[in-house]
Amino acid sequence: MSSASIVLPEGFENLSQYGAWAISRDEDRIAKRLETPFEEVVAFYDAVIDQVYEAMQYLSTRPVNNPSIDDINLVNILKSMAEIANAVEIYHQGPIPDAGDLRGYVSRIDRDLVGSDLNE
Amino acid sequence: MTIVESQRPSELDVMKDVKRWSRRNPELGNGPLSTDRFISPEWFERERTELFAKTWINLGSVRDLEGPNSFFTRDLVVLDKQILVTMDADGEVRSFHNVCSHRGMKLMWEDRGACPRAFVCRFHGWAYEKDGRCVSVPDEIEFHFKDRSEIGLVPITTAVWNGFIFVTFSEETPDDLVTHLGPLGEKFESFPYDILELDYRYDIAERANWKVAIDAQNEIYHVPMLAPVHRFLSQGAFASNDDGYTRLNDFSRLGLHTRYTSISESYEETRFSNAVAKGNPAWGAEQLLPLVDPFEFHVLFPNMVMSFFGNMMFTYNFWPQDESNVVWEIRLHFPAAKTLADLVSREFSAKRFRDLLCEDKSGHEAIQRGCESGARPYIFLGDQEVQIRAFHRSVDDYLEGIRNV
């Protein structure tokens, strides 16, 4: 697992150690949810959850076009939170019990913030 | 825009008036439903020849194209057809058999893309325009046809309704698409599809009959029971009575199609959901459509679902492969994101929904096994599953040649 430090907008620098969760592609976020030991998933959630409200307020002032790299990193951390939120808050485990394999649920349309492309 | 709704039934009626929908739709009966329809190869063959070969079939929408001068292809397994859908520079959508006129080779092998200068067959280089005209035949002098106009791509009857692309292979004169859509089409006549983006698409192969999958989606009775995210949402995402059982707020048959609604109530969301919503209240504050109820679910006969939940529109296309296999195609549409926060809000809506549908998959497959086991030759439907009864009535009528549009 990469522990690369990342740049983040002012006020969110304390999350810079979570570079491994600043993931741009849907397929990779799903893999991260499933492959990370669940205690580490919960630790990431716990580290970020109290700042989600402020992060959303900040990002709601930032237009979608031409985002800066620090804004992109913050969005991608929050997208990883969106990926694992049900796992932590509802399932209490990474995979969905008695269900399909999430790896089969990669969106064929995967526009990330660097560019837009179709993941087919 | 004008979307006219019948007056919504009163809350009290909906909650207290048991077996309400059966009494209001006596023509649907209340008996059990035979399982043959889910497992029998003969039944499936009738659906192929009497239903899919004759009706209108939705292939997706203009959002599956990249704009003018683009195309997508589709293998329509249920009818053994390969289809090439094109949009020309003027936005005109056409469909053709994706088959080279020369020797029957599959013409375009890509799923989608920008139109090349010509659609060129990889076998011998025969080339076609976006309107299907054959424009080039290598070594043409060695062929015996009189004129290239004889060897264009074979067109398929195509119609576009509010951006949704439909085809029909009917050899008889089919009902036109507007007639087929009937009251459902009227309801969405001015539907503002152009304000929506196609943001997510999942293609899920399941070992289940296509109608098993539709039926399992076409009710909310299961929501309080089936699985964790279902149970979580049953706290209030759908109307429930005092015992916690979901209730349809409205149900109607719209020609061949059906509609049901359920009204969300307030409930305690998760920490993440609350933080996302409160930090970005602009997203989803505006309901997508001026619908009476925020959750509306339509089965667009025979194999499509068009549904609205808050500011999301989701569509399903259930593609029969054989009597016991289906590909469930799921598309999520949202209004365009304006801010970076909107991208996060949208992502969470999609992920919550995706987990919900992932919970459903194993159920669809288990139902198929249960029906195939022959334990019982029929299944039961309650009043809160009246829309499933109506769907099967439409299928049965169609197979019998009754066009109840």
Report a brief summary of the structure:
The complex is a heterodimer of chains A (120) and B (405). Chain A has one domain. Chain A is built from 4 helices and 2 strands.
Structure keywords:
heterodimer; A: about 120 residues; mainly alpha; two-stranded antiparallel ribbon; 2 strands; globular; disordered C terminus; B: about 400 residues; alpha+beta; Naphthalene 1,2-dioxygenase Alpha Subunit, Chain A, domain 1; Rieske Iron-sulfur Protein; 2 domains; seven-stranded antiparallel sheet; 10 helices; about 25% helix; disordered N terminus
Characterise the protein shown here:
The complex is a heterodimer of chains A (120) and B (405). A two-stranded antiparallel sheet of chain A has the order 1-2. Chain A contains 4 helices and 2 strands. In chain A, a hairpin with a 4-residue loop joins strand 1 (109-111) and strand 2. Chain A has one domain (13-118). Chain A has helices at 26-35, 38-48, 52-59, 69-91, and strands at 109-111, 116-118. Chain B is an alpha+beta fold and 405 residues long. Chain B is globular and about 80 Å long. The two termini of chain B are 24 Å apart. At the A-B interface, helix 3 and helix 4 of A face strand 12, helix 7, helix 8 and helix 9 of B.
Structural class of chain A: mainly alpha
- Report low-confidence residues of chain A grouped into runs of 5 or more: 115-120
Largest sheet of chain B: 7 strands, antiparallel
* Tally of separate domains of chain B: 2
Gyration radius of chain B, to the nearest Å? 23 Å
Strand content of chain A: 5-15%
Strand-and-helix sequence of chain B, N→C? Answer: HHEHHEEEEEEEEEEHEHHEEHEEEEHEH
- Mean pLDDT, all residues of chain B: 92
* Termini gap of chain A: 26 Å
Number of distinct helices of chain B? 10
> How many β-strand stretches of chain A?
2
The percentage of residues in β strands of chain B lies in 25-35%
Number of contiguous helices of chain A: 4
Largest interface: pair, residues per side: A-B, 45 and 46 residues
Radius of gyration of chain A, CA atoms, in whole angstroms: 14 Å
CATH top level class name of the largest domain in chain B: Alpha Beta
Under CATH, the topology of the largest domain in chain B is which? Answer: Naphthalene 1,2-dioxygenase Alpha Subunit, Chain A, domain 1
Specify the overall morphology of chain B: globular
